Description:
InterPro entries: HATPase_C_sf (IPR036890), Sensor_HK_TwoCompSys (IPR050482), Sig_transdc_His_kin_sub3_dim/P (IPR011712). With 416 residues, this protein is an alpha+beta fold. The chain has 13 helices and 5 strands.
Amino acid sequence: MRAVARPLFGRRARLRWIHLILGGALAMPYVLVGAIVVGPVAGSTDVFSSFPLQLSSFAVGLPLAAVTSLFPLTRPLESAAVRWLCGVDADRLADGPARGRAAKVRTALWFTLHLAFGGIVAGMSLAVPPFAAVLVVMPLTAGVFGDRLGFPEVFGQPWAMALAPVAGVASLLALAGCAAGAGALLARWAPALLGPTPEDRLAAAEARAADLAVRNRLARELHDCVGHALSAVTLQAGAARRVLDADPEFVREALAAIEETTRRTVGELDTVLGVLRDGDGPGTAPAPTLAADLDGLLRRTRAGGLTVTAEVAAPLEALPPVLSREAYRIVQEGLSNALRHAGEGAGVAVRVEVRAGHLELTVDNPLPSVPATRPGGGHGLPGIESRARVLGGTAHAGPARDTWRLHVRLPLRATL
């Protein structure tokens, strides 16, 4: 019994019934407009007193509904209603307005079907229950309703009195069956008519790719600023601890470098996290540039115990902001690798020069005596390669004679 009743009166069937009644409510303004057209044509002043004229008004109003379905909000609203009331998975429906002729035609067809089925089921929902109630109680009224129904010769018969309650219950079941069937049909057709078109899928894929690109860039910003700061602060604190009693001046310089490094990193971290929280911020978090902070970066790295020499043969102030910012991050990551792998007191050489229309960045440091390993590998070199590739440049890292060399070439006209 429950298996039979659930498709007709279960929760999903009831929600779909509500969806159809909403369609009937939406159809009423169009039916009224249709009545204004049908009335004069049929020569009637009371269209709603005639069932054929009501159907004619309904038929005239549906094309008007198809035209108004071209408004941009129609598809998002219909998709939301189908998702919540018809039980259709969200990923099978389009969220945005219909774009393109095919999508608009399908939306118009869906809206027309929703209003057509909804108008019929809503009308039946208003008319059938009272009629069924009369049939159910007819045996108790001894044929009083026979004259009012217009068939006294039928409803005055004993067999009619016996069958009337059965007919009343059957009409209610028929109403529930029509509503359940119409709801199931609409739920089946919804993905085809309201689902994403190839253009929608392409737009969604492009949006996801753009969002992923932004997140990857923010991840690189976090890796570079936080990774460099942790490496520098670790070595600076270790060097200060070892000479705490022997060289107080060096300790003061190391502590000052730790303070400056952490302060700058907290500011950069707050900027990146702000972009992540807002969700609609710029594609990259603001970062220092070569012109603004190359000297400070070198000074803080020296405070960690490395001997850093720098050769700058490029007009840093004249570099494009994007190029200068990305180049700063590349040099920063190169120095971070040197801090982690070259060892205390090692000499690191940094060269920044312009050659043949390219900005060339080179970081040389001694090869480690014992190769360092990190679980899962690091992300610094892939990040450098990604930055260079986005700018249209190249990046190479590896042993060069007795040193480890990072060499990056970036075109001066590079833009993101």
